[in-house]
Amino acid sequence: MTTKPVIAPSTEDTLSRRGFFMKLGILFNGFAAMVLAVPVVGFLLSSVTRGRANGYLSWVPLGRIDEFPEARRGWLLFAILT
To answer: What H or E segment, with its residue span, contains residue 78?
Structure first.
């Protein structure tokens, strides 16, 4: 007498291993997208939240050139340009 292997009936309510890992992967990808989107949105909205839309175009007062020691003038120019 031969017996057939018993296979559990497949219903819509059971979640396969492939389906589980697919949903888990989608969840992790969504989380990673949110983590990466926060700095991008913050950068895009930074000019609005600071209230200085053209603040990066204004000059920064540093004083007269003769007020700085001569040895530090090159460092100051480098610090301003970078």
So the answer is: helix 73-81
